[in-house]
Write a structure and sequence with these properties.
This protein is α/β, with parallel strands linked by helices. It is 43% helix and 21% strand. The protein has twelve helices and 14 strands. It has helices at residues 2-24, 40-56, 77-90, 102-115, 146-158, 172-187, 206-215, 226-238, 258-261, 281-294, 300-318, 326-335, and strands spanning 27-33, 60-61, 64-72, 95-97, 118-121, 138-140, 163-169, 191-198, 219-223, 247-250, 269-272, 346-347, 353-363, 366-377. The longest helix is centred in the first third of the chain and has 23 residues, at 2-24.
């Protein structure tokens, strides 16, 4: 009997030491971001921002040295489940960080929910991630697609526009951004007279621009990002529409794209949770450190990557790096006020940022702050049961 008890005690001690080794060894962070295609630059900025915060913490999060494992998700939802399973099953990552494309993020969230793997979404705004698919181990450091759209709906209505045409890619991000805009705009008495879309990542806009010209709306609301945003802004101006029909968008239209858009973007108004001239001590320090580290100016994607690492660090510090303590990690992040370059924000029960949405105007190569379009805007988190 004594031998059995001794063996049981030894087994328990061994299991404890293995668990301890796992929680004090390297923290494996799986970066599943686009490295190629229309969103490649966005993936780079997110990774840079994440790495900058880790570097500022001496290469550690929650007391554990960080090791990165990278997968190019190619912004392809068809490859997403295989890619995320490679990181979890083959590479044994402790944490997943990704991604940009909403369709890919949905697949990541599904697998993270099933496996209990910690997931921080540093961009994709798919409403379902912090809606019906919400989970104690899933967090977002960016926005929901609803948030900038809703804020811009309020702005456009206040400007007195009554009839608006919307245009976007036909995928989750575009659909949900338009839905948020429409909700606020129509609540204020406006009317969306036409909803135009084209398949992602198609950038043949000409036929749709002709439709906009024929409809003669008071204004146009759009959601595009990356290379698609560059081409849309240039094509809109080339079609002669910019002079007569004001163009408004979620901020991704002009974030990380101004160099390529040039004068065609000048004067455009967008709504987003970050602007280039916030001028706060935190933002100034962040911009300087980022420019020194990467010889580039940061954008909203870099901020979201930086804050993904900040949120993760807050959660892991509370549990001394033990990634198995999901409830305690969640509780620590939910209680936190995250000191972000965008301005301090908190996290909703559904784990989406509650944050100011800014109205910005393009001036030269900057998205300059005009005003706060919506103060401490919380996504409704519809369908989340946490």
């Amino acid at each position: 009997m004594k031998t059995v008890r001794t063996a049981a005690l030894l087994a328990a001690a061994l299991a404890s030491s293995v668990a301890q080794a796992q929680n004090t060894g390297k923290l494996k962070v799986g970066l599943m971001l686009p490295a190629t295609g229309t969103f490649a630059a966005l993936g780079t900025a997110i990774e840079n921002g994440f790495r900058l915060h880790v570097t500022e913490q001496g290469g550690k999060l929650g007391g554990r040295e960080v090791e990165f494992v990278k997968v190019d998700d190619e912004s392809d939802p068809a490859k997403a489940t295989d890619n995320v399973n490679k990181l979890i099953k083959r590479d044994n990552v402790d944490v997943l960080v990704g991604t940009v494309h909403s369709g890919v993020a949905m697949a990541m969230a599904k697998v993270a929910k099933e496996t209990g793997t910690l997931l921080v979404v540093p961009n994709a705004g798919a409403d379902a991630v912090t809606g019906p698919m919400c989970a104690p181990n899933i967090f977002r450091s960016s926005f929901s697609n609803w948030q900038p759209g809703y804020a811009m709906g309020e702005v456009v209505a206040k400007k007195g526009h009554k009839k608006v045409v919307t245009i976007t890619w036909k995928y989750a991000a575009g659909d949900e951004s338009v839905r948020g805009f429409k909700e606020a705009f129509e609540k204020a008495g406006g009317q969306v007279v036409k909803e135009l879309s084209l398949p992602f990542p198609n950038v043949e806009f000409q036929a749709l621009l002709t439709e906009i010209a024929a409809a003669k709306p008071d204004a146009v609301y759009t959601f595009f990002a990356g290379g698609g945003a560059v081409k849309f802004v240039k094509d809109y101006a080339a079609a002669g529409l910019k002079k007569n029909i004001p163009l408004y968008g979620a901020g991704f239209l002009t974030d990380g794209t101004l160099e390529a858009q040039g004068a065609d973007a000048d004067g455009l108004l967008t709504t987003l949770h970050y602007a280039d001239s916030l001028g706060t001590p935190k933002d100034n320090a962040f911009r300087l450190a980022y420019a020194k580290s990467f010889k580039l100016q940061p954008d909203v994607y870099a901020v979201q990557g930086y804050d993904a690492a900040q949120m993760l660090g807050i959660g892991l510090a509370a549990v001394k790096g033990d990634t198995s303590k999901k409830a305690e990690i969640a509780a620590a992040i939910e209680k936190a006020k995250i000191d972000s370059p965008r301005g301090a924000f908190s996290v909703s029960k559904a784990h989406n940022p509650v944050q100011d949405i800014y109205l910005r105007q393009v001036s030269g190569k900057e998205n300059k702050l005009v005003s706060v379009a919506s103060k401490s805007l919380a996504d409704p988190g519809r369908g989340c049961k946490l």
